[in-house]
Queue: 4 jobs
Job 1
Amino acid sequence: MGVRPLRRRDKTAWRIVRTRNQDWLRAWEATLPPGSAPATSTFSSMVRESRRSARRGQGMPFVTTYDDRLVGQVTVSSITWGSARWAGLGYWVDRQVAGLGVTPTAVALVADHCFRTVGLHRLEIAVRPENVASLRVAEKLGFRQEGRAPRYLHIDGGWRDHVLFALTLEEVGRGVLEEYLRRTGV
């Protein structure tokens, strides 16, 4: 299990995984509200925009790997610098490896990178209350629940409530991954 930056040459593997999981991920995927400008929908444009965002220090796209194959994605977005130094984390995983600890491990690796290398102070995760598996990821990694945000994001064609979680540098101890492994006995 691991993470690495998203690359252009991931196109075929990414499309295969996304196509195979389209129905499974639909209920959790962000959508554009009516009246929005059309989204750029090609893989190449997504990679290009992700790289621009990374160069500006506003985001970081990672792929999740398992047995050296692409099985998901962890995205750091909305990085805010200055006195805030925070970002949001989003993630998805191939249904074929769900439940194997792939996502918590990947999110922990990215969180440690954000805290220890990038220099962020706070990370946030927003999860639909119905997404039990994703709620468990945040809880397993020690993210503290901060509240509920009504109609927080446009998901699957409508404005959906989310549960908000956060973690700060002071709370990670030896590191998010190390604490996760210690707590779960993995």
Job 2
Amino acid sequence: MSRNFMGIYTIWLRDVRRFWRDKPRIIGATIQPALFLFLLGTGLGRGIVGAFGNDIQGDYLTFIYPGIIGMSILFTSIFSAISIVWDREIGFLKEVMVAPIARWAVAVGKAFGGSTVAVFQGCLMLFFAPFVNVHINLTMIAALIPLMLLIAFSITSLGIVTAARMHSMQGFQVIMNFLVLPMFFLSGAMFPITNLPKWMDIFIAINPLTYGVDALRGVILGMNNYPLIMDVGLIAGFGIVMIGIAMVIFGKRE
């Protein structure tokens, strides 16, 4: 068992070091959410507040700020799984799979590595809070970090499940774009999820990021559509299912 824990730690450390040394990736992953927040948010804010009326309380940039944090976690988490496809192409994954550790430890290590990177990116977005009239205190940060870790772990596990059966980076990117954009736009990150058509309500309800954004908005702004315990429970349940599937997939022979 100690070998498995060491294997998890080693894989986690490799992913974190790879991210930390890739400064352009850090900069790019920070600028993209910032552009959504200030450029798209400012443009949409001129018309969308009037369209949704009392569903948006206060300034639009303030409203979407938790959603942009969720977007940063989503993009970083799910695309961190692309390293699995890359490692398979260069043969590194095969070497890891024959190491003297349980194969499920590889999936868990990858999940923790991607989660840690995503939480770091989410924390970087907290520095933009003063620019959107949001006050972040230490109590909020103490609640946000484990919440972001839970969201990141669940989404990273989803990416790992997808990447585990992909054999080309091009194919993975197509599938991820097909998943990521609907997950983001149907999460309530950019607009309220009340009084929408019934068919949208279905997709919103089955979207795990919906509950992540709702929990973030509840902690930061005190605005919830669902009880916080429900948000956390559903995100945790989704993460357990996804990491379980990932462990089963990695447990099978390549």
Job 3
Amino acid sequence: MRSTTILTVRRHDQVAVGGDGQVTVGETVVKGDARKVRRLADGEVIVGFAGATADAMALLERLEAKLKEYPANLARAAIELAKEWRTDRSLRRLESLLVAVDRRQSLLIGGSGDVIEPEDGILGIGSGGPYAMAAAHALAAHTDLSAESIVREALEIASRICIYSNSSITVEVIK
């Protein structure tokens, strides 16, 4: 997935999810302050998305419905969404990736049926995701910064490397 950077870091007693604000169509920046990080389930779950915006919005609605069906069980809601996404004929064509976090888990949710929990609590998606993850790993290993501070700094670093990301950063935190 191109055209964004989403990063989540779980550290100490908090989890943070952040994203840049750049929206790119082809080689052109059309918006610089989009919000690609949202709260669901009365603020108990934070979701970030990369990929086609309309596709991501459709998936966010479905994830929210699954969270209502399986309250306080992000993993179950994510698995049910991934199963539906993979098997439903119309959903299969959606081009997006999601990260979803709650107090206990950080998950990557993909259209091929993937629901992946990172072993170290650091997860990045989008074209700038690998750059942000690398920066977050270094910051986590060599500083005592909070999850929120690591996300902000790593996204700032990624925005200087990835041409599809910018430094208009949104971060949401669960403590």
Job 4
Amino acid sequence: MVVNAQPAALRRLIDEVGNVDQVGVEERVAKYATRSIKKTAKVWGLRTAVSMVDLTTLEGKDTPGKVASLCAKARRPHDTGDIPAVAAVCVYPSMVRHARRALGEGSGVRIASVATAFPSGQAPLRTRLAEVRAAVEEGADEIDMVINRGAFLAGELGRVQDEISAVVEACGPAALKVILEVSELEAYDSIRAASFLALRVIREGDFIKTSTGKTGLNATLGNNQVMLEAIRDHYLATGVAAGMKPAGGIRTAKQALQFLIAVKETLGDAWLDNTRYRFGASALLNDLVRQLEKERTGAYQAPFYFSEAAESY
């Protein structure tokens, strides 16, 4: 984004929270790929990544049966080996009650629902809030909301923050994940600024999230790093610990381990837990399971040996 094209309010916020050193960020994340993780540490990382996955289906053709199958995979990602359940299943609001029925009590798997006119966020606020309340009433433990990127880029920052605050209130006891849709924010400076807009009004245990998975560019180590550093800086200033969820485009165990290295080196071990870090990457699950089976048996199984996961949002 050309700085001169930014609205004055956005420029002021960027000046307040600090510019991002793009070259520095890219150099730092490139080093994550050079870290070597062996045997016991690798198995721990793979298992931890499995436990952080939000297993997702967000299609117009979703059915109660498809959601039930998703929930079965969420509870038990593979028939052999000691592989943990995933963190959550993520569905549209109309499918929340079917997920609740399929998971039953005591599964440990949470139910997340996208809301607020996902993925565009282009609906009247009252409609978006009604959708959030309905999803929570149906049994959602978590809400994944999208910010109004048009308002953000137009410099209507108070409006964006007020809308996030209204969703926080509508969530009640449910945790909130605020989706920035980083590909539409166009620059690291804007991603950092949007992160702070959300961080200043969300609660301990809520999350910021990169993407809907519905655009061309989703989670990268670069935009993940910018958001992790915003979480770190906010935590150091306020003591409020927010979570992070990169979503879309993370498909291999190798990538997931690099993201976990970024978390450990930026935020520390306290964030290496699914209460503070998630992967919105359903397609990732099968590769994580495949790699765990390889560590257990010493041999790779063919990819078709594992049941298919859903989408990567």
